[in-house]
Amino acid sequence: MFALPVQDIAICPGAVPRERYILHSDMNCFYAAVECFINPAFRDSPVVVGGNEEARHGIVLAKNLLAKASGIKTGEPLWEARNKCPELIVVPPNYRLYMHYSEQARKIYYDYSDLVEPFGPDEAWTDITGTVYQYGGGATAAKLIAEEISERVKSELGISVSIGISWNKVFAKFGSDYKKPDAITVVDRENYKELVWTAPVEDLLYVGPATKKKLYRCGVITIGDLATYPTAALRARLGKMGEIIQGFARGLDTTPVKALDPERSAVDYVVKSIGNGLTAPRDLKTPADAKALVYLLSESVAARLREHKLKARAVGIGVRDSELERYTRQRRLLLPTNITTEIARAAFALLCENEDFEGRGLRSLSIRAQDLVDAAAPTQTNLFLPEAQRKKLEELEGSIDSLRTRFGNKSVVRGIELIDSCMAKVDIKSDNTVHPVGYFR
Predict the structure, then answer these.
(1) Does any domain span residue 379?
(2) How far apart are CA 421 and CA 425, in angstroms?
(3) What is the Cα–Cα distance from 438 to 441, expressed in whole angstroms?
(4) Number of H helices, E strands in the chain
(5) Residue 398, Cβ neighbours under 10 Å: how many?
(6) Tell me, what's the pLDDT at 123?
(7) Residue 397 lies in a domain
(8) Measured between alpha carbons, how far is residue 420 from residues 134, 142, 145, 291 in Å?
(9) Please, what's the largest Cα pairwise distance for the chain?
């Protein structure tokens, strides 16, 4: 996950950061808020956006405030949510609608700066350092801009937003989480020890459950404990990541807000890998069942490689079985490729080498194309691969991409994908939304 070496993270111990004004905007209860806005009848009822229970995706994806008040949590099974709140309204997700609202919100942020970096569909950083001077300058101007953005999102999109303001991205995000909903929190050099350092260490960006356990064992309970812990001891226990999160806790992050391309509503960054995964409608207990899913996922991965004009030099798989145990495997390819069949064959071979399909079924599978290179880059051909045939396959898949663009992703399917009637209904490319997320890009 943390692909960049520590020296590429802009943390400069001992240096005084340039005074910046960065906003982190977080749209409250995003998916559920959109559903309640477009369906006024839902507004006075507990509402959750939930996955497809028949396809075993039946968890709470988002909840409104009334559902939250009933104790419902994001990620819990829908049946548990209904037990807590019998009058609960469950609506299926509409990702295209949510992404539309996400793009509209970013257009508002873009009115205040050309430095906008999405962090998921409902969150974004905006560097307004150059804009504050048009509002009088300083922290007062930054808060005025945040208030204006908040009112615009509310009036134009019908959604409330919590905004954090700070001189660095990490504390700005802390600020947007500090008080919800519909709040603005300033974390500055005068109050950060009072606000941030007294908070639980897990409230800091990139301190997840596993890291939290390690830190608790060291007696690091609050963010302040992390900031003042001996650096050498922390590095010995957590490696480079320990030093990075300690820099976060100390407010030493100077990572820039990466510019948003308004035409693409995406951050300009180097794609390091492309993958897709799916929880199968039923446990996969035979190689034939698994092969159908492998090709379904490989279609999506290969198509995205071609969209980005990339090829992969390695393929990886991630497997979760019926007992929820996980493992990953990967292997190098003979030649870089974005051909579906080559990716699928490599992934299926990896799976068969590690699974005997006896005694347990596979619950979910993911496939990832790794070690990416420019599709137009020259490569050394391999005497043992039919280059002319590979060229024809590339041309064929380009034609299929064009057909799917015009007539839909299910207009052309492989016969192997029709083996399972449940799986044949899945539009793997459009049903899996790709969100621009990644602090360490």
Answers:
(1) yes
(2) 7
(3) 6
(4) 15, 14
(5) 11
(6) 95
(7) yes
(8) 60, 55, 53, 11
(9) 70
Higher pLDDT, 153 or 428: 153
- Name the nearest CA neighbour of 250 among 209, 302, 196, 293: 196
**Residue 409 banded pLDDT, cuts 50, 70, 90:** confident
For residue 4 the two structure tokens come to 């960049």
Among the listed residues 245, 301, 240, the one whose alpha carbon sits nearest the alpha carbon of residue 271: 301
Determine contact, residues 252/11, Cβ cutoff 8 Å.
Answer: yes
Residue 64 lies in a domain: no
Degrees to nearest 5, angle at CA 270 with 265 and 274? 85
Counted domains in the chain = 1
Amino acid letter for position 406: R
Distance, CA of 426 to CA of 424 (rounded, Å) = 6
Token pair 């794609």 in the structure block, residue: 271
Measured distance CA(126)–CA(116) in Å, rounded: 5
Write out the catalytic residue numbers: 123
Say what the pLDDT of residue 435 is.
Answer: 42
* Boundaries of domain holding 364: 269-424
Residue 249 lies in a domain: no
Q: Does 148 or 295 have the greater pLDDT score?
A: 148
Q: What is the mean pLDDT of the chain?
A: 85
